[in-house]
Amino acid sequence: MQFSRNRSNKVFVHLHLHWDGAMSIAHLLASCGISSILLTSFLLGSSPAIAQSTSNIERSPEAITLMQRVLTASGGGASIEAIHDLVAIGTASAPMNSEETAENAVTISLRGLDQLRVDSTQPTGVRSIFNNRGSLSSKEVNGTVLRLGSEDTVSTTSHFFPLEHLAAALRDSSYSVTVPESVSDEESGHNLYHFRLQRVTSEVVGSVHRMVSSVALDYYVDATTDCILRIQNLHSDRGRTPIDNGRGPYEIYRFSNYRLDDGILLPHKLSVSLGKQLISTIEINEYKQNTGLAESDFAPAQKQ
């Protein structure tokens, strides 16, 4: 690990890691100098569990109504589904110790449910991470492209544009959604509604037909504003974090500072925690909708 400062005295962190097939995505993203901003965006569906049968797919009418209210409060389901790609521009910071914070400019590009790109500005150039429909790769500052394997991704973009995830779950009956429960948020004192969202798909292994469920996402919605305040799920560091019976601590994504952008109510502050440890905070200065992102924007080309 190396540290450097720019002229504004901001601290940048540089990590050079070798991908061995067992490294967690958290470690992978740290190599981009933006700490663990995308902890689970690449992990959805990577730890499947077998469901009993299709009859066990629960779709609570109360939760469906709540999800529709969230979309309405955010600008309307039709307006949200009309967003084909979204670009968020801002600054990511990560605490290095009690006195210093690493800070980088970041651009987060999303296309559909399964394409994501993060560009992080380093002192020597831009380093990027890509998830193109489950195919993971990075592009280093010197132009070298690293192929990092693949994940069975269900919804790559849900932690940065959860509204699209909810819209997809409303129209796709393969998503299970639990009955909302009323809870109190200890941090804000707000009353929240909590429900769990999980996609269940089928696969055939040999002659056996079975149902496979993705990693469950817990949604927390403000009972007054109908805004999403938190998403969380259990994190597994590929067996290296023997917490919560070997499954890992919770990854928690918090959303705040909601403002209208082109008619859509979007959060301008996101924070990412692993258990009680703050990993990263992202301040978003600007959103851009429907910029015309193409397939090639999520498939890095090797420098010639």
Estimate the mean pLDDT confidence: 76
Low-confidence segments: 1-54, 236-246
Radius of gyration computed on alpha carbons: 19 Å
Question: For the report, how would you describe the main beta sheet?
Answer: 16 strands, antiparallel
Protein architecture, described:
The strands form two sheets. The protein has a 16-stranded antiparallel β-sheet that branches. A two-stranded antiparallel sheet has the order 1-2. The chain has one domain (about 1-295): outer membrane lipoprotein receptor (LolB), chain A. The two termini are about 30 Å apart. The protein has four helices and 18 strands. Mean pLDDT is about 75; it is low at about 1-55 and about 235-245. The chain is mainly beta and about 300 residues long. The radius of gyration is 19 Å and the shape is globular.
